[in-house]
Specification:
The complex is a heterodimer of chains A (254) and B (711). By secondary structure, chain A is of the alpha/beta class. Chain A is globular. With 711 residues, chain B is an all-alpha fold. Classes of the chains: A alpha/beta (254), B mainly alpha (711). At the A-B interface, helix 2, strand 6, helix 3 and helix 5 of A face helix 1 and helix 9 of B.
């Protein structure tokens, strides 16, 4: 089943000089249930804007998207119920403890207080954050914060997870913990969209990859099909070749 | 999860969050509890220390010429001797002895040759006061007077103080000389007192406080509201928690209402602590006398009352602050927005704090100003009509509601949340606004909130004075109502690319609903009359209502019949329906439930009549017409019903015989309708309701795309 369908998504931003910038330009892709779809691209390629449109934080200028069968534009509340959303720079409420924060978000997902605190304890156990569940979020390390953030995204046990550079700025150990969490969620049957510009990470994690450049998909497929398409083995080389950046790199280095 | 439970969840979390913040605690608790007593103690002690030390300071007096110096020296010494003598005659422990003036004992005389250097020395503050005698020698002749001149510098406290002491000394000496002369000529004590005047100040200390307290109140409440308002809106954005909040399945209006309630709570708590701290400092610090000469503390009942006044005020301020801060992306940006708002709030607050301002006219609906005045009038113990209280509370509620609705519309808007989605300015530019089918709640409430004081002002400006007819008011209404109620909303709708026809419900209704409209139009006066009679039997009829009805009747009688029906029936029916049942009800109906939308629009419609006595009937009529419009999905039935209802009222006003004919005379009190009118009228009215109850098309709520862009 297709859990995520993006159909010809376009997002145009106004710029200060009165011109328009097409941040996302006619993007279409689907993600099957229980798969990890990697959205890859350099900074400014339109990854974040795409994910924001999928999660209903931004309205597309044109085009449409469906998550779990719900239309993002006309059924925003249903979409929010099937979606867990996580970014690298999502903040936490500094003055709440991790546990209080999880209970609060569970309540926002329509659980009563008892259900919410049971769910919070479950997540604390599942993600191994018991050691710092009673600490205020402001006092946690970056890696610990991101683990609480994942717990927050999972609070309603949503079938779809949208993750925007979830490992940005983490050390190796935290990075590995977060990626293991994500794999475990996929194995549990969740559909995941992951954006990253760490290509090794994508190679390791994703069942299917979309290469995004200047708001357009330049190539899409599983790793093998991308390899044969570009005639390269490493994803980073495939990527450079497909966006014809190798010539630019040479020009700059020379 | 219900609306209330979601709000409770959000409220609980936000309150814990904000109360755990050190900055909030400092602003809310430490500042009032530590700072106020310290400031008060400090400044009062500083003032009394200064006064004391100035009393002990040596007076430096400049005088023109050596001989005059000797004369002044003699005068001062004689005065001191006399005081000493009076003192010796009294018991040193007695009250009289304590009240004797202090003689001038520490002083130094500096003789000057000419006037100019003497003036210069006073200006340079080398000396405190300059004295010039008109002649060298003083005289005690009864046909002569001794002329003096004192030179001093008003801006120099020491100089003013010195001149007062010298003046007192001269007055004492003159009084002694007068007494001696009366004795010498055997004159009675009253000889030079043809009048004896006593001026008694009846103000109490609380009235002194009452004058300034409301203004202090404004500052306290604003201080309490600013920080949480910024923290809960712009702070959420700056810390990056907004995205996770916005992807939770919670309507933005719930988030904003929860946050708004927290800001209101914190503002009230902060102001209560401030108030308690000030009262305690005054009471326990023994500063009663310093604040007012009559003494006495602030009565507890008044403190409680001030707190009650504070609640609607805190509600309004919190709503405004939340709305303003919702525009900001960062703390700093929010602070920049808040500063001009505070200044803008202080202006009406300041006007209201002026002693001569009264709670009437435009001040009744002046945002902030009306609350300050209401609080002050209560504190001063003035009699306030309940109509004024209702007006102040309702208008404040309307403004606060509009501000909260605006905040809900702005908060979480992508152009505010994400920097790359363009600035707020670009989101207001028409090119980028997407067409929508209906206005938002905030657009509806905001337009009405702006129209409210404007319309009040129009009514007040043209209302007939004593012995005047109401022709001016009628014509002003006839001209201005279409402009304000019709053209203004249409221009706004056109700018925001809102479907005007759909918003104003301009479409053909079913014949059934037209028939219902006619029946309602011709029968609604029956329940309206009965409500009036009921109300009168419970509350009586204010004289002003009777007078207004008389003035209106006379005015209408003098106008041509055609003009009466245009001005009283046609113009209000068209304009009010399109504004309240078209624009406002559509805006409210875009996200509120059916009956909430109808009731709110009816309440606003009622308040717009600025007439407390008419409130039950106008709100009832508003509900009826709103229901008719909602069921028929067309504005036309409401216009028809409103027109007929007003036309019948106008007909009654120009044909008083009609009342006789139906059996309710206008001469006596209003009485119930006779059965042969009441029963058929009631049946027609209920029949009309039954017909209305069946909607014209099975689904009333269309699939309206969420309005994008703009307010």
């Amino acid at each position: 089943m297709d859990m995520v369908v993006a159909d010809n998504l376009v997002k145009v931003f106004p710029t200060p000089n009165g011109k328009e910038k097409r941040a996302v330009d006619g993007l279409s892709f689907v993600v099957r249930e229980g798969r990890i779809y990697g959205l890859l691209g350099p900074n400014g390629a339109g990854k974040t804007t795409t994910l924001r449109m999928l999660s209903g934080l931004m309205a597309p200028t044109s085009g449409s998207a469906e998550l779990g069968g719900y239309d993002v534009a006309t059924q925003p509340n249903e979409v929010k119920r099937v979606l867990g959303f996580l970014t690298a720079n999502t903040g936490l409420y500094q003055r709440l403890t991790a546990r209080e924060l999880l209970i609060y978000f569970a309540q926002l997902h329509r659980m009563d207080h008892d259900e919410a605190s049971a769910r919070a304890d479950e997540l604390i156990e599942w993600l191994g954050i018991g050691d710092f569940a009673g600490h205020r979020c402001g006092a946690l390390s970056t890696g610990q914060k991101q683990r609480v953030n994942i717990a927050r995204a999972l609070v309603a046990d949503p079938p779809i997870l949208v993750m925007d550079e979830p490992t940005l700025g983490l050390d190796v150990l935290s990075n590995r913990i977060i990626l293991e969490y994500i794999k475990r969620e996929r194995d549990g049957g969740k559909t995941i969209i992951l954006s990253t510009h760490y290509l090794d990470e994508a190679e390791d994690m994703c069942d299917r990859i979309g290469l995004l450049h200047d708001g357009k998909l330049v190539a899409e497929g599983d790793l093998d099909s991308l390899r044969s398409l570009a005639g390269e083995d490493r994803l980073s080389n495939i990527f450079l070749k497909l966006i014809r950046a190798d010539e630019k790199v040479e020009a700059i280095v020379r | 999860m219900s609306f209330h439970r979601r709000i409770r969840t959000i409220y609980g979390k936000e309150l814990i969050d904000i109360l755990r913040d050190r900055r909030t605690l400092i602003a809310m608790i430490v500042v009032p509890i530590v700072l106020y007593p310290l400031l008060m103690l400090g400044s009062i002690q500083a003032v009394s220390y200064q006064v004391e030390s100035m009393g002990e300071e040596r007076l430096i007096i400049g005088i023109l010429g050596e001989p005059q110096a000797a004369t002044l020296q003699r005068l001062i010494e004689t005065d001191a001797r006399n005081i000493q003598r009076e003192k010796n005659a009294l018991d040193p422990q007695s009250k009289e002895a304590n009240e004797l003036p202090e003689p001038l004992d520490h002083f130094h005389l500096c003789p000057f040759e000419r006037r100019e250097p003497l003036e210069e020395a006073v200006r340079n503050r080398m000396i405190q006061v300059g004295v010039i005698f008109a002649s060298e020698i003083l005289t005690d002749q009864i046909d002569r007077t001794n002329a003096f001149e004192f030179l001093y510098d008003y801006e120099d406290v020491r100089s003013s103080f010195a001149v007062r002491r010298l003046q007192d000394m001269i007055d004492r000496t003159a009084e002694r000389m007068k007494q001696a002369r009366k004795k010498r000529f055997d004159l009675p004590a009253e000889f030079d007192k043809p009048f004896e005047l006593t001026v008694t100040d009846l103000s109490t200390r609380s009235s002194v406080i009452g004058q300034i307290l409301p203004l202090i109140l404004i500052l306290m409440t604003i201080t309490g509201a600013i920080y949480p308002a910024i923290d809960l809106t712009a702070g959420e954005r700056e810390r990056g928690t907004l995205e996770s909040l916005m992807v939770s399945p919670v309507p933005v209006i719930d988030l904003i209402v929860g946050k708004f309630l927290v800001v209101t709570t914190v503002a009230i708590m902060g102001a209560a602590l401030n108030l308690a701290s000030v009262s305690a400092t005054v009471y326990f610090g023994g500063f009663d006398k310093v604040i007012s000469s009559t003494g006495g503390g602030i009565p507890i009942a008044k403190i409680v009352f001030i707190l009650l006044c504070l609640i609607p005020f805190a509600v309004l301020m919190s709503a405004i602050m939340i709305a303003v801060c919702s525009f900001a992306r960062t703390f700093k940006e929010a602070q920049n927005y808040v500063t001009p708002v505070i200044l803008a709030v202080l202006i009406p607050g300041g006007i209201a704090a002026l002693p001569a301002t009264r709670l009437d006219g435009i001040m009744l609906v002046m945002p902030v100003g009306n609350m300050v005045l209401l609080a002050r009038e209560f504190l001063l113990g003035a009699a306030i009509s309940p109509w004024h209280i209702v007006m102040v509370l309702l208008s404040t509620t309307l403004y606060a509601g509009a501000a909260v609705a605006v905040a809900a519309n702005i908060f979480g808007k992508e152009s505010v949340v994400f920097a790359d989605a363009g600035s707020l300015k670009s989101s207001l530019s028409r090119r980028l606004i997407k067409p929508s089918a209906k206005p938002t709640i905030s657009m509806g409430l905001l337009v009405v909130a702006v129209l409210f004081p404007t319309w009040f002002f129009v009514q007040a400006a043209f209302s007939p004075g004593p012995d005047e007819d109401a022709i001016g008011l009628l014509y002003a209404t006839g001209w201005l109502m279409p402009i304000l109620f019709l053209i203004l909303p249409i221009v706004i709708l056109a700018y925001w690319k809102v479907d005007i026809q759909n918003t104003l419900c301009v479409r053909m209704p079913s014949l059934r609903h037209l028939a219902a409209a006619v029946l309602i139009g011709i029968s609604a006066w029956v329940p309206a009359h009965e409500i009036n009679v009921l109300q009168q039997s419970l509350l009586g009829v204010p004289q002003s209502v009777v007078e207004n009805a008389e003035i209106l009747g006379e005015t209408l009688g003098a106008l041509p019949v055609g003009a009466v029906f245009v001005l009283v029936a046609l113009v209000p029916a068209v304009c009010e329906e399109l504004l309240f049942r078209g624009f406002l009800l559509s805006g409210l109906g875009s996200s509120a439930r059916k009956w909430t939308a109808i009731l709110v629009s009816a309440a606003v419609f009622g308040v717009f009549h600025f007439f407390l006595f008419k409130l039950p009937v106008t709100i009832g009529l508003g509900v009826l017409l709103g229901y008719l419009c909602w069921q028929s999905r067309s504005i036309l039935p409401a216009i028809v019903a409103h027109f007929l209802h007003n036309a019948i009222g106008a007909f009654g006003a120009i044909n008083p015989d009609w009342y006789e004919w139906i059996g309710v005379s206008t001469d006596t009190d209003w009485v119930h309708l006779p059965i042969h009118i009441l029963i058929p009228g009631g049946i027609v009215f209920l029949l009309a309701l039954l017909i209305t109850a069946r909607p014209s098309i099975p689904t009333i709520k269309q699939a309206v795309p969420a309005p994008a862009g703009g307010l």
